Amino acid sequence: MPDFSAEKERKRLEEVAQWFDNQHGINCEIAEHAAALIIKHAKGDRALELGCASGGMTRALLKRFAQLDVVEAASSYAEQARAIVRKKGQVYECLFEEFDCRENYDTIAATGILEHVDNPSALLSRVRAWLNPKGRIFIAVPNAESLHRRVGLQMGLLNRLDQLNDSDIAIGHRRVYTWDTLTADITAAGLQVVSMEGILLKPLPSAAMETLSPDLRAAFFGLASMAPRLCSEIFAICRI
Question: Which residues span the domain enclosing 187?
């Protein structure tokens, strides 16, 4: 990765950490649903979470695993993770590309990270080496073909479905995925897709979704299985 700069990458992440929070609102609900899917299909007792943000998923995973280690480069997020994990795991304050893995894990949660990193398939190749032979890697990424992006395209707010919008740029996304492009990155890393599904049938932008009642939002989460390719997030389970 000749153009990769660790210093610039940390700066990008620290800027996002100043405001992004996945402990509240729709971001928290998405994290909780992704955590529930991970817990449902998880293997073993040792887990690694790649990128924790403000801990929306970390708290849920901590209840399932005897050991939960976290890799997080943003210092404020890492500090929060240490307070959450305490003696049940180790928090490594570094970039994923810098992480020196000393043991293999049964479960690796890589949710909300591939859209941010410089080279997702190269990162997944590294993550593959951190997984036990019978373990699973769980991935969640934003879906370019989601219903709310299709609405945006219809309204002329997007020129194409995979265009980065203002929210994507603010949070530091480098890309949004389709089912095909995510599958391509997974297979390029030498991993196999076990299954893929959607999280949240999202007809409106996040700010508008948060004005809906909790029951109505829950209904849209519940409808995800009816139209997975129109959902807000793509959730993939992978193995070696």
Answer: 6-239
